[in-house]
Design a protein that fits this description.
209 residues; mainly alpha; 12 helices; homodimer
DNA sequence: GTCTATATACAGATAGAC
DNA sequence: GTCTATCTGTATATAGAC
């Protein structure tokens, strides 16, 4: 017998649509400029349905943010994947990092969360610890190992991780956050990643003995 | 004859009070969460008076931002002031830079402008060009000169300026923007400034020949 | 669970007295 | 220029039908 009832798969379909719409709108317009009406309209559900699944606007926003923290996970995974010498692996990391960092949707997430940190500090802290900090922490054991092999001279691996990230990020993140028009293309990003890693390697080069 | 009329000094006193109140509230609560009523109340003027001097909320916000761009000028001035060798001057710059960067009111400005860049990109761009970019540009001729004297090895002074700033900024700016509790005290800032400059000098050290 | 219609509150902006 | 009082739109959140 063929059923015309909605399949089991559709369970939780509405909340999913609400989350997707909320993400899109929060990121495009920011928290304050997005209304629950807009979200309901875009998700093609009634407004009361939104409130059925999320207690209020603040909680819906938090749900969106929690999800987006995982955007950093691609980076963390790229760290352990692949082989090659130290420089090749650092360059590969730098390249992925750059890409993710200034992707329009990632910039939108940063903007929106930084904005709401004014009134909801714990939201900002949670994002930082589940996002940027995890990337840094994933670099640490890797750099420590390189130091143990004598390829790097460092006494503070966490600081070294921060420095590597800082050199790769350079002014690109701020420029993107402030909507300064000139952003690098694909080719330039390759070049920037290589240059940043070279400078990092020189700053942390072991003495020539 | 003694006049009971308000003295000439009081000309423009109301607009000044409005600007001060607007700055305080915009920075504390963000643009969206601040109402024109709040601003008028805090400035102790009628709401219509606010609209007498500023066409609308957006323009008032822009006026506040324009003023605050000058917060970076202290940095630019600190660059040309004082003497000492290259390292000493770089450390002095780094120390001032760190201080200004994570001062609560500067963080508030960054947060608020980044938030509004979503809907008013030209505002973000203007702030970047009149703030962070000016600091970078002020460093350029100074680093170029050091390179000419053979104290640094660099072919791209702008890139070197960005790297110096990046190493000093490290993760402190992001941590502050996301309200991560642990921020450095006075002593740690001295230490951080010195360490960052040392790493910069090593990354740009001329060949020993 | 889902919708339409609505209660309630407050925002930005203005009219008109002084 | 400055104020009080008000217009008008729109936001969050809910009541009640299905």
């Amino acid at each position: 017998m063929l059923s015309v009832e909605p399949p089991e798969v559709e369970r939780g379909l509405k909340p999913e649509a609400v989350l997707a719409a909320a993400k899109k709108l929060f990121m495009e317009r920011g928290y304050g400029a997005t209304s629950m009406d807009d979200i309901a309209k875009r998700a093609k559900v009634g407004k009361a349905t939104v409130y059925e699944h999320f207690q209020n606007k603040e909680e819906l926003f938090a749900a969106v943010v929690t999800r987006e923290c995982r955007g950093h996970s691609a980076l963390v995974e790229a760290l352990n994947a692949g082989d090659g010498d130290l420089r090749a692996r650092l360059v590969r990391f730098a390249r992925v990092f750059l890409d993710v960092l200034i992707r329009p949707d990632m910039i939108a997430i940063y903007r929106t969360i930084i904005a709401e940190t004014v009134r909801a500090p714990q939201l900002g802290t949670a994002f930082y610890e589940n996002g940027p900090l995890r990337v840094r922490n994933a670099l640490v054991p890797w750099l420590s190992e390189a130091a143990r092999r004598g390829e790097l001279a460092l006494d503070d691996p966490e600081r070294a991780a921060v420095d590597l990230i800082s050199l790769v990020r350079a002014d690109l993140h701020l420029r993107a956050l402030f909507a300064v028009p000139t952003l690098p293309g694909l080719v330039e990003k390759d070049e920037l990643a290589r240059a940043a890693v070279d400078r990092f390697l020189k700053a942390y080069a072991p003495p020539v003995a």
